[in-house]
Design goal:
13% strand, TIM Barrel, alpha/beta, 2 domains
Length: 428
């Protein structure tokens, strides 16, 4: 091995120091510093801004995603509109939120007009094309959650019901997306969102339309008033979706917790522990602030159904890990993950006065950069370069020591020769 000169060794060490310092000065960003926070506010399919703001006041945080439902073939009434509603979209964007529309055909299981084969045959194409043209004219990014909970038999677009046969779901999905795109609409971020299930459910892999037809994945799941944890609700489906579409951002498109003594624990665990630490591929959470089963339902999913639950939700969602309504100028499609700090400067007084973040959560987020690929590569590089520098210095010192020993031996040999030769001359 070649031995570095003293100058080269010093230069090499200086380069290592400068590179290391640069990496320490430049912030190393974790995979995602924030995820979107959104909400559906019931009981109507699309409630007013006033009602949304009432929820935001209750939660003490504005939403980054405003979720509502629109059915294709249901007439416009107090709860629904089948049309692309530009005024709704403008109002949402002006509020700083991203629209997310659950967009489905509505009908009973015996209504062949809206079954999957009907869609594949083009019976809804005129409607889809007009809707897409109006969306194109609006011209801003938004989410569309098409055929939500398609693996549930309670939906008329599930394979195995309403005359739908195996393989038709993917065909229908692709048909809808192709018609919309053929109209020139490119601002939609398509969300593929099954209901939670286990291995006994439908084959989700066979129901995936393909990466070119899906931008985000998602899943819906609820705690129905028992002690089932967030992880128990979502883990199986989460891991299954990751195996199907590992490169796609994922969202919790619907989540809620029915009234119970466990509700506060569910919220705290979900917001402080599970989402930041154990479900790293989740890039958005959209809470279902409504009632399931109609206006008169007793399934109280509201975050304020009891004081402890509300306190736990507010404490968890106050974290900067959950982005607020800072997206009025969003212009990128498909919609990217929310990995930048909110640009809003106004913060509710209560959060300013009492930023009650979970200590474990904060430590985990502060040290999360230690597990990033960038940091691990840097650490490995520094160790290797430092080792080379140390070995070079050691070899240099050994070389000097060897040279000194050789020089000493030569001097000894020379001295001995002089003494021998000198002695011989005197004898002669």
């Amino acid at each position: 091995m070649a031995v570095f000169s003293k100058r080269k060794t010093l230069t090499f060490s200086l380069i290592v120091f400068l590179v290391s310092t640069a990496f320490l000065i430049i912030p190393i960003k974790a995979e995602t510093t924030q995820i979107y926070f959104g909400a559906y506010v019931g009981p109507s399919h699309k409630d007013t801004l006033v009602q949304l703001q009432a929820f935001e006041t209750t939660a003490n945080k504005e939403v980054g995603i405003w979720h509502w439902i629109q059915y294709w073939n249901r007439p416009k009434d107090q709860e629904n509109s089948p049309y692309f509603e530009t005024a709704w979209m403008d109002e949402c964007r002006a509020h700083g939120s991203i629209p997310m529309i659950t967009w489905d055909p509505e009908g009973g299981w015996n209504d062949s007009y809206i079954n999957l084969n009907s869609i594949i045959q083009g019976n809804m194409d005129n409607y889809l094309r007009t809707w897409a043209q109006n969306a194109k004219a609006w011209g801003h990014p938004f989410f569309v959650r098409l055929f939500h909970e398609f693996n549930g038999e309670w939906t008329s677009w599930c394979e195995g019901v309403n005359g739908n046969t195996q393989g038709q779901f993917v065909q229908a999905w692709r048909h809808v997306v192709n018609v919309v795109r053929s109209a020139g609409e490119t601002d939609i971020t398509w969300v593929w969102s099954p209901n939670i299930q286990d291995e006994k459910g439908l084959n989700l892999t066979s129901l995936y339309p393909g990466d070119s037809y899906v931008d985000w994945t998602g899943m819906d799941g609820y705690n129905w008033g028992d002690t089932t944890s967030f992880s128990q609700v979502f883990s199986w489906t989460y891991n299954k979706i990751l195996s199907i579409a590992p490169t796609k951002p994922m969202m919790i498109a619907e989540v809620g917790c029915k009234e119970s003594n466990y509700k506060a624990t569910f919220f705290s665990d979900m917001l402080n522990t599970q989402l930041p630490n154990n479900f790293g591929k989740i890039k958005a959470i959209v809470y279902w602030e409504g009632q399931v089963g109609g206006r008169g339902s007793t399934n109280a999913l509201l975050i304020e159904s009891n004081a402890d639950a509300l306190s736990a939700f507010k404490q968890g969602i106050a974290s900067n890990y959950y982005s607020s309504n800072a997206f009025s100028s969003l212009s990128i499609s498909p919609i990217p993950v929310s990995d930048s700090e909110p640009t809003k400067t106004s913060v509710p007084t209560e959060i300013q006065a009492s930023p009650t973040l979970n200590p474990n959560q904060g430590n985990s987020q502060n040290l999360s950069f230690l597990l990033t690929p960038e940091f691990l590569v840097l650490a490995t590089l520094i160790v290797l370069v430092s080792a080379i520098a140390i070995v070079s210095i050691v070899l240099r010192r050994k070389s000097r020591f060897g040279q000194t020993r050789r020089k000493g031996r030569m001097l000894q040999a020379s001295s001995y020769a002089e003494r021998t030769l000198g002695g011989g001359s005197r004898a002669s």
